[in-house]
């Protein structure tokens, strides 16, 4: 499991990345490019994803509890069974 908890990845390009089951809790992911990335089963709890590009990404079974997804691009993203409460 990749541990990127509390990481500052603002404005980073990680399209097509494999972050399956990764820990991105409390991470600064503002304006990050995660298009077509595999974030299945990732922990994104309390992550700041404002203006992030998550288009086409796999976010199945991910934990997005209390994540800020304001103005994020989620077009064609797979959010099946994701916790978005």
How does this structure look, described?
- The chain is low in regular secondary structure and 85 residues long.
- It has one domain: 3 Solenoid (Pectate Lyase C-like), CATH 2.160.20.80.
- The chain has no helix or strand.
- It is globular and about 25 Å long.
SSE topology sketch:
Elements: no helix or strand
Fraction of residues in helix: under 10%
Shape: globular
Mean pLDDT across the residues is: 97
Main β-sheet description: none
Count of separate structural domains: 1
The CATH architecture term is 3 Solenoid
Number of helices: 0
Strand content: under 5%
User: What's the gyration radius in Å?
Assistant: 11 Å
CATH class group: Mainly Beta
């Amino acid at each position: 499991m990749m541990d990127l908890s509390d990481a500052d990845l603002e404005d980073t390009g990680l399209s097509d990345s494999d972050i399956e089951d990764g820990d991105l809790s409390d991470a600064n992911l503002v304006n990050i490019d995660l298009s077509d990335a595999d974030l299945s089963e990732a922990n994104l709890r309390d992550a700041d994803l404002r203006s992030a590009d998550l288009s086409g990404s796999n976010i199945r079974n991910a934990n997005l509890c209390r994540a800020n997804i304001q103005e994020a691009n989620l077009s064609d993203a797979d959010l099946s069974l994701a916790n978005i409460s």
